[in-house]
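Holo prediction. Input below; ligand is CA2.
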Amino acid sequence: MGNKILVLNGPNLNLLGEREPDIYGTKSLHEIEREVSELAGKAGVQIEFFQSNHEGELVDKIQQARGVVSCIIINPAAFTHTSVAIRDALSAVKIPVIEVHLSNIYGREDFRHRSYIAGVARGQIAGFGAYSYILAFQAALHLLGK
Ligand code: CA2
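Structure of the complex:
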């Protein structure tokens, strides 16, 4: 299992930086991943990134992480508020989960206030834009005892 961190991103996050910069910021997902990757290199941990617009692909990736990954950082995007399947997959693999959001979901529309993921996560970070991912990575290092 070693010290591998898996960073999962859900639907539409591939559009990051292109639209709605007032809500989600101006950095692309690739830029965010590059920054986190640099930190991982410095910390001597392995890191893998995966983005999908498809719920089932995210479920598959979570299942494949079993026995291979030590911590999952996930921004489930819209699936945060809908997906029992992703919650059940995260719960089944018994890998510590950190939920991350760019925006403060509690300051937005009511339907974003409920997260199906929060109950199976060790913790949640929301509202700091791209920096939420840096904070989530720091939290992952903490969970790995680094
Ligand atoms: O704040 C977050 O990170 C969210 O997970 C982002 C999701 C949203 O449904 C959640 O409520 C909160 C949406 C991601 C969509 O990303 C876009 C990026 C650029 C342009 C349009 C959408």
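Residues 12-13, 15-16, 19-20, 24, 75, 77-78, 80, 101-103, 105, 112 surround CA2 (CB under 6 Å). That is the main takeaway for now.
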